[in-house]
Predict the structure.
Amino acid sequence: MEVNIVALPAFKVRGRKWEGSYEQVPGLKDVIKKVETEKEEINPVDPDYQWGLSVHTIENGFVHFSGFEVEDSKSRASYEEMNVPHHTYMTVHHPRGREIGETYASIYQWFRDGNAKPYLEPETNYYDGLPLKFEKYPVDRDFDEPHFDIYIPIQA
């Protein structure tokens, strides 16, 4: 697994929020696909890439925000928005054909090896060793064998 450390400026994602337990995750795919069909209305900065932003603040589940990066302009009432502050990230590419669990196991090990510490929002309770997981998907991905980039905010 090749790890890169990158700093990204703050950005805004417009789309839809999903919240649920791990058992309810199959329904998340429908939200992701719906947001992809709404791409033109969302008016993304880069229509070729969709973000999946997972925040693990629910016991036995998580909050997921699916959307596209947009300019920091007027909000649209029919969509939710998430402002992502400037962060330094450890980033890896999840290749097509590899089990997603294997890629994340490698990421957990990278952190256990002491390479960095995940970023934590002050006064926030998290229920996962990787509390913030951001994934950037090409819109032409195969949902059964996806490939995408993973961004984990780290403490700078």
Remarks:
- The chain has a mean pLDDT of 94.
- Strands lie at 4-8, 11-21, 49-58, 61-70, 80-84, 87-94, 132-138, 148-154.
- The chain is about 15% helix and 40% strand.
